[in-house]
Amino acid sequence: MACQKLDRSAAEKLISETDNFLFDCDGVLWDGHGAIPGSVDTIAHLKRLGKKVYYITNNSSSSREDYKKKCLKYGFDAEVGDIVCTAYVGALYLHNNNFKGKVYVVGNPAMGKELDKFNIKHIGIGPDEMVNDDDNINYSARVEEWLKTQLDPEVNCVFVGFDPYINYIKILKAASYLQRENCLFLGTNEDTHLPTQGSDIVIPGTGTMVKAVSLPSRKKPLIIGKPETTMFDTLSLANNLDPARSMMVGDRMNTDIYMAKRCNLKSLLVLTGVCTEQDLPLNGVQPKSFEAGEELPDFYADKLGIFGEFIASL
Amino acid sequence: MACQKLDRSAAEDLISEMDNFLFDCDGVLWNGRGAIPGSVDTIAHLKRLGKKVYYITNNSSSSREDYQKKCLKYGFDAEVVDIVCTAYVGALYLHNNNFKGKVYVVGNPAMGKELDKFNIRHIGIGPDEMVNDDDNMNNSSRVEEWLKTQLDPEVNCVFVGFDAHINYIKILKAASYLQRENCLFLGTNEDGHYPTQDSDIVIPGTGTMVEAVSLPSRKKPLIIGKPETTMFDTLSQANNLDPARSMMVGDRMNTDIYMAKRCNLKSLLVLTGVCTEQDLPLNGVQPKSFEAGEELPDFYADKLGIFGEFIAGL
Question: What residue segments make up the domains of chain A, in order of their start?
């Protein structure tokens, strides 16, 4: 039976049946206020019990090295080899597929860093203002200017990730490059927003940039991040993971848990991030909330620290 | 039988059966290079034959007065009341629904002008840069800055149209306002891109702005433009049009023809804009092209001027 509230007995069983624990980070290990109480202890217990711990995040604004620093800052012990993040896995994907050419990046410096590591040429990161833009320019005059946009003839891949400088001209360029035959289209992830506790501000996620490029280009991207399986496959290949003895812990049903299901991993949903109790089935009926995917976790808990408490004395 | 190539006999039947002809403009009457050959003559013949001519466009960057000037510029005789465009119909919708409050507009000055005419207060039009933005800011600092964004407490409607200044902070504000209970969400139209003959540049359409706001807000907008029926309903009410004696002429199956079907109008698809021969059914089989909707027109012609040639001698 799916979606059981995690209890001591289930926690002890998981310890005996699972070697590898994969953690989404935002909303599971930390949030805007810092490390979530109990998460550091839980990871420490798992390591003490000889388990392998991995960090698997859709965040595209950090390289693996950046992410390791972030983990250490919050008190989580991590090596670069324990981390998969979308900037890295996207660049790795291109490398593994013998990509030759140039990438137009609608993204951020971390994506550039990861592409540089594989000597993949790229342009586009950072602000891009329209020349000759004037508030009094009418629409037709603007269209004339846009039609004069210079495209780089070498670009044969568009890679979209989190871009705080997203704007019209970048979307125009990306959509234009994507009309080229054989131009690849990669997106790091499609998360709609980042959870913000107690704030009335919505922080739009990378899904915004990916959709903004996909629609006018009329192309669909290959998505690197959860819920696609690429990130688990990458980690699994590098670390020889047995899915039957691996568990994913996340806060989003439509990314973390969905990927876990597709990879045949066990799954634990914690309610300290995007999903709340309202997203769980009530009396066997799945709610029609935006976040509730069709994918139910094996277990859920109010926070990761509950799992830690159950295994503290093992 | 649907999707017949317009011939002289069908054209003559249409003249005897139709009183009202509604024209999409871009790709039907004019394109980037000017009036499409034959279109001015066709409109002139229809008026000579005592028919009513209306202009019905999803373009949100023009007020009705702007659009009248545009029609006259290309040689098409138009009064303001013959025109429905989405900036006007959106403002009218709010007026007809007794809107009280303030609108956050992700759009353009024409939308502002139409809202002003109904004394509807609005903010947001024009550029909006993030204060304290610095290329070297890391993502966490940016998130901290974004979380300090000041929202206007009076806003209870978000109205999205074509916005050349679309950027992250505007998307953030719109998505944040939309979390308010009872905040309305209007979008002018969802056109993904605008046709550009012989250019390798894609001009992203308003659909880009609407999706960019809809995704992080997790709300769906009420769409004013085609293929929704609001624009025909507005025109019909103001001019007492009988759908059974009205025909829509457009270049996009998934907007113009789809709206025509929903309103029970006859329809003619011309191939001088977005749709091409590749989007038409071949041997009764509908192609799976992006533009091909499930809605087939009654008739199609290479250009509107063909219709004009058939009726010139009447």
Answer: 4-58+226-311, 99-223
Class of domain A4-58+226-311: alpha beta
User: What SS3 state is found at A21?
Assistant: strand
pLDDT at residue B132, as a whole number: 60
Q: Which tens digit of pLDDT belongs to each residue from A103-131?
A: 999 999 999 999 999 999 999 999 998 76
- What whole-number distance in Å separates Cα of residue A57 and Cα of residue A80? 13
Closest chain A C-alpha to B136 CA, distance in angstroms: 10
Residue A288 three-state SS: coil
- Name the pTM for this structure: 0.90
ipTM of the complex: 0.90
How many angstroms away from the CA of B147 is the closest CA of chain A?
Answer: 6
Out of A61, A167, A211, whose CB is closest to B167?
A167
Give yes or no for A168 touching B (CB within 8 A). Answer: yes
Q: Do A192 and B218 touch (CB under 8 A)?
A: yes
Reply yes or no on whether B24 is catalytic: yes
DSSP state letters, B121-164? EEE--S--PPTT--TT--HHHHHHHHHTPPPPTTEEEEEE---T
Provide, rounded to the nearest whole percent, the portion of chain B with pLDDT above 90.
82
CATH top class, domain A99-223: alpha beta
Chain A CB contacts of B30 under 8 Å are: none
